[in-house]
Amino acid sequence: MTQLEIRAGTILPAHREPISLHTVDGLRLVGELAVPFEAEPRATLVCLHPLPTHGGSMDSHVLRKAAWRLPALADLAVLRFNTRGTSSRDGTSEGAFDAAVGEQHDVAAAIEYAEFHDLPRRWLLGWSFGTDLALVHGLDPSIEGAVLLSPPLRYTREDDLDRWAAAGTPLTALVPELDDFLRPAQARQRFARVPQAEVVGVQGARHLWVGEPSVRRVLSEVVARVAPEALPLPTSWSGPYETFNELGSP
After folding, report:
1. pLDDT in tens, 92-123
2. What is the rounded CA–CA span in Å between residue 223 and residue 147?
3. Is residue 156 part of a domain?
4. Which residues pair with 171 in a beta bridge?
5. Number of folded domains in the chain?
6. Angstrom distance (rounded) from CA 216 to CA 201
7. Quick check: bond before 232 cis, omega within 30?
8. In a domain, 157, yes or no
9. Looking at the domain assignment, is residue 250 inside a domain?
10. Please, which pLDDT band fits residue 246 given cuts at 50, 70 and 90?
11. What mean pLDDT do residues 2-29 have?
């Protein structure tokens, strides 16, 4: 079979289903779970999206591509959802944006869903605002670690970092060289109080990780922490696939 180069709109096979998360304060959040089509998951990514007041959602492109590719390429389960008041193609979650306060219940609901459904080896994957949610609300005994993309540390306080330091839970921050909010040298200073934190500066990258080289770098770095035995990630595919159309369904 002909080898297909994996591109921005390539959707590889997985079992995908819409899910609902229910928070302790009575909200229903929309989400999706993607799991490997044939294998048992090696590990699970619980994705926390960028700032919804600036367009972030479960469909933000790096998280969407993680769900499109990693179940097939790395046997990972990928759980994405919209935090309170956030809209995407999958729908709108109930409630309203609460500046990382009420969202504590959203993070807890996602972790609880993954735990209740026996999704293995749960890791948080936060991007921008989602990194603050991970650091402030995601330190849970059932979470093996967290990977942070473009952390601005806007809502994260020093005592939040101190709690991660005390717990010893693995923490990796991928910081773009040209980030708009926090660049690698600054990030190393801020994360220095967390001994186990690994700060990886990514040359030439920007906050939004635009472009296929940036996406591939991010996904490879994530898999290196969560399921290193799945590396290197293929850049081509010979099986069935779909292509995403921005104007309609895949």
Report:
1. 999 999 999 999 999 999 999 999 999 999 99
2. 10
3. yes
4. 146, 197
5. 1
6. 15
7. yes
8. yes
9. no
10. low
11. 96
